[in-house]
Amino acid sequence: MSTWPRFEFPLCKFRGENAFQVKKFLLDVLTKTILPSKSKVSVVSLKQLSPFLRLLTHEEFKTLLLPVMTKAMLRSPEIALSAVGSILASMSLDLSVYVSDLSKTFSTNLRSKDDNTREDAIEATLALGRQCSDQSAVESLLESIFGVLNGSEGKISLNTMKVSLLTAAGGLTESGVTGGGVANLAVVATKLYVKFLEVEAHEGTLVTALEMLANWAAKYSNQIPEQFISWFPKGMALKTTTSGVRSAYLVCLACSLHTNTLSSAVPLIPSLSKVVDNAVKQSAQVAIVSEAVHAAACLVKIAGVDLATEQSLAELLTLVVDTEKCMFYQEKFLAGAGAAALQSLTSLITTLLISHVDKVGSTPTPMLRSLAICMMSSVSSVRRHAGPHCPQIEFCQLWK
Quick one: CA torsion of 355, 356, 362, 367, rounded to 10 degrees? Predict the structure, then answer.
């Protein structure tokens, strides 16, 4: 809104009584004009207050700002949430101690019937998370969100509401928690997501849940949580599980795989191998082959655990390096595959050329051609995924 005054100036230039008066004036603007406003305030206008908001103390926030925020959100959340989210995002304080004051209101509005209110609630939740460095505070925020998702405030029948709650929970991976606390939160989040996956049946909601869980899966440190390992084969095998959901499960698993977690994924080899075997029998079905390329990308990584594991996957490795027969490098699949499948194909080829180069042979042209197609994809996410992989490949090794 152009009618709002501009406050973009360095407040630090003011000293003594002047600084006190300016700060008092801006606090009055926030608490008496902006937050109680009967219409939405432009986020652009609120960002102009950032230099001032970074100077607020805990005492000022707790006694002057927080009560007004709470009252405004209770009265008109559809108006106030946008301003609250913008204010929290601009602050420099660690807001961990205020999660108990704000989480319930945010979580409740994540299930609002109004689309814009839900979007504002997501932004406010993520802004609060980014300002929290305490693991227990973010864990409390996660539990509050899943409490609402699981029906603490009444059964949720609209899938759009579930998606908003799941998205907010997934976005908390970008919280202010660091170090081992992030991995601990990933375990907590996994337990909460798996419980939801066990009872949800709607395809779109399941895919969103798995996409958000994938954000947390990338944060695992030493092993994949047992809850996910136990549920993965069951979720994949359900009669109601569609090809899209199976692919989401596989991509989620792929996000969790790195050097320290590979050994914990060994129990999933039979389930993953079944996906590849199914695609061999139905190689004309692009959707089925897409599932297989996700599974194969996971399997070739897991093969690096130890020699015994690699030997148990000898048949798979023989298949994926056979560029003449393997369905992953064929024109039909490359032309019809979606972005996620092409990203997994990039990972598969890169792993083969780096970790299993002795099995690739002397003529990997179809692999390199497939990799080039991914690099030149019209989808930016595929190009961004393929780009960093290519410098890792020492092409000279292929012809030694």
Answer: -80
Contact yes or no for 333/286 (Cβ under 8 A):
yes
Measured in whole angstroms, the distance separating CA 310 from the mean position of its chain's CA atoms is 30
pLDDT digits (tens, 9 = 90+) for 29-71: 899 999 999 999 888 888 888 888 998 999 999 999 999 999 9
Taken in order 318, 281, 245, 227, the sign of the CA dihedral is: negative
CA nearest to 66, candidates 98, 36, 37: 98
Q: Does residue 328 carry a pLDDT above 50?
A: yes
Q: Which sign, positive or negative, has the C-alpha torsion 323, 327, 332, 338?
A: negative
Name, in order, each residue with C-beta under 8 angstroms of 358's C-beta and a sequence gap of 6 or more.
none
Query: With contact defined as beta carbons under 8 Å apart, do 329 and 371 qualify?
Result: no
Segment 254-282 shows an average pLDDT of 95
Cα 284 to its chain centre, rounded Å, is: 32
- Is the alpha carbon torsion for 153, 159, 160, 164 positive or negative? positive
**Helices (DSSP H) in 131-202: which residue ranges?**
135-149, 159-171, 180-199
Contact of 164 with 118, CB cutoff 8 Å: yes
**H runs (alpha helix) in 303-379:** 307-312, 314-321, 331-336, 339-355, 357-360, 365-375
pLDDT(88) > 60: yes
What does the pLDDT look like over 184-209, one tens digit per residue?
Answer: 999 999 999 999 999 999 999 999 99
Confidence band, pLDDT 50/70/90 cuts, at residue 393: low
Q: Which two three-digit tokens encode residue 12?
A: 């630090």
pLDDT at 2: 41
Among 123, 49, 122, which residue's Cα sits nearest to residue 91?
49
Q: How far is residue 208 from each of residues 22, 161, 164, 166, 249, measured CA to CA in Å?
A: 46, 12, 10, 7, 11
DSSP H or E stretch at residue 210: helix 203-217
Q: Rounded to whole angstroms, how far apart are CA atoms 115 and 78?
A: 10
**What residues contact 100, with CB distance under 8 A and at least 6 apart?**
140
Burial of 59 (0-12, 13-18, 19+ CB in 10 A): exposed
Distance CA 335, CA 381 (A): 16
**SS3 state at 258:** coil
Q: What are 78's two structure tokens?
A: 């559809």
Q: Strand ranges (DSSP E) for the chain? A: none
In the prediction, which pLDDT does 17 show? 57
